[in-house]
Specification:
This protein is an all-alpha fold. 64% of the residues lie in helices and 0% in strands. The protein contains ten helices and no strands. It starts with 20 loop residues before the first helix and ends in an 11-residue tail after the last helix. One of its GO terms (molecular function) is soluble NSF attachment protein activity. Residues 1-20 are annotated as: Disordered.
Length: 217
Amino acid sequence: MRSARPLDSTCSSRTNWTQPPALWMQETPTRRRIHRGRFTIAAKHHITIAEVYESELVDIEKAIAHYEQAADYYKGEESNSSANKCLLKVGHYSAQMEQYAKAIEIYEQVATSTMDNPLLKYNAKEYFFKASLCHFIVDELNAKLAIEKYEEMFPAFSDSRELKLLKKLLDAHEEQNSEAFTEAVKDFDSVSRLDQWLTTMLLRIKKTIQGDAGDLK
């Protein structure tokens, strides 16, 4: 097989970026030599590949790998917002695959990077909320300690509906009260509709309550 040439400033405009992802991926060993200014191009192609694995081939592990690579390239261009979008995909799927430690690390990282940004800081509460849910699935005490840390890091989190829900869920879980757990979720959902990811995480927590029926109805 002919070895791929590094992408540099002299790279021909005729480079075949339209070839199938499977073929393009064979050229990725040259990625370490991609010059600054070309990272964004490489990142976009990794996202394209990730989306193919995500929606067509349904290979989430490979999708995660390409979103991670795209995030690294965006960081190389200091495009932190774009990098964070890719990382959030990684966190989303890592949690779904029960890789909670990895998901927590990502959500904390993104929350920390956005909470001091005037335009993005209100999103930080969502990421701390998701990190808290991942902690909660692993261990109730872990969740309590994490929530205390997030409140100290980001005081605005203290007044959020997400934190109020978490505290109600912690109380219900400690009392092994599945009805109170479900009622808290319903109250939250009546104002802020739960998406499929949140529903899945909440069900996983609820199933740890003794005698739970395994639904949120």
